[in-house]
Design a protein that fits this description.
MetI-like fold; mainly alpha; disordered C terminus; 301 residues
């Protein structure tokens, strides 16, 4: 009796195409990794070497001078705490608000579903502008110089809500109907049936919110004064630090003071690693869900 082989024969053209694709992807990965290695090498080198020889992956003179300058002030530890708190609290609050609005809008039985959807969509097209927003937050809500000003103004994103709504719309309706037959109410259906099967979408939207909170500095610039330095987020504090270093360098040009050893470029490289490091460490834990969630919104419009 003849044995049928399950192996799929690959033609010579397909093998060549695979080799080309692998080579292109490998080259692209190398091009992405090299700048990151240059940042690491630059942050561990002396400023004089960068000024004279330029950036290199391997430091010519190993030095932690940039990190010493960066961490000598205890303010950066407070900034890390502020950023971690705002990222965690803001992401959780934003996801709760997004889910609580996206799930009802995904239900066709919701009354006034179309007008509410249009109202949310309208905010994506037109905004109040900077001046009305500033007056609302600072004068009427009285959030200036408070840590909540880093959380509340960006707590909700219409774009993320629509992505989450489309993801909910792609879940088979039989799940909700079976839960209703068993006597579950809307909250039980959402938190016990829908959300457990929505991990890819939840992880993707959570990553979007977390990146937004982690990288924010604009609201801090607008609403936090020098008296609120203890609650500066990490990004704004580092921007302020590098801006002060640039100011010292410009001032030195007029005073004639040698600034060759001032860690300007190395400090910027070190701050880059400090700010993106936690996100890089977090990504592998959500990569599985993030990859699945890339198709969020592609099932239904």
């Amino acid at each position: 009796m003849a044995v049928v082989s399950n192996k799929i024969k690959i033609s010579k053209q397909d093998k060549i195409l695979q080799i080309i694709c692998i080579a292109v992807v490998f080259l692209f990965c190398i091009l992405c990794i090299i700048p990151f290695l240059l940042i690491i090498g630059g942050s561990l080198d002396k400023e004089a070497n960068i000024t004279k020889y330029g950036y290199s992956i391997i430091p010519k003179t190993f030095s932690l001078e940039a990190y010493t300058v960066l961490f000598k002030d205890s303010t950066i530890y407070k900034a890390y705490g502020t950023t971690v708190f705002t990222t965690a609290a803001g992401t959780l609050s934003a996801m709760l608000l997004t889910v609580m609005m996206a799930y009802p809008l995904a239900q066709k039985r919701l009354k006034f579903r179309t007008p509410i959807t249009f109202f949310v969509y309208f905010t994506m097209l037109f905004g109040g502008g900077l001046v009305p927003t500033y007056l609302l937050i600072s004068k009427y809500l009285n959030l200036s110089d408070k840590i909540w000003v880093l959380i509340i103004p960006i707590m909700f994103s219409a774009w993320n809500m629509f992505l989450m709504r489309n993801f909910f719309s792609g879940i088979p309706g039989e799940l909700s109907e079976s839960a209703k037959i068993d006597g579950a109410n809307d909250f039980q259906t959402l938190f016990q049936i829908i959300l457990p099967v929505s991990k890819p979408g939840m992880a993707t939207i959570s990553m979007f919110y977390a990146l937004g909170y982690w990288n924010q500095w604009y609201n801090a610039m607008l609403y936090l004064g020098n008296n609120s330095r203890d609650i500066f987020p990490l990004q704004y504090l580092i921007m302020d630090l590098t801006r002060s270093t640039d100011a010292l360098k410009e001032m030195a040009k007029f005073t004639g003071i040698a600034v060759v050893n001032l860690p300007d470029s190395t400090l910027k490289m070190a701050t880059t690693l400090v700010t993106i490091g936690p996100i890089i460490l977090l990504y592998p834990f959500v990569q599985k869900y993030f990859t699945q969630g890339l198709t969020v919104g592609s099932i239904k419009g």
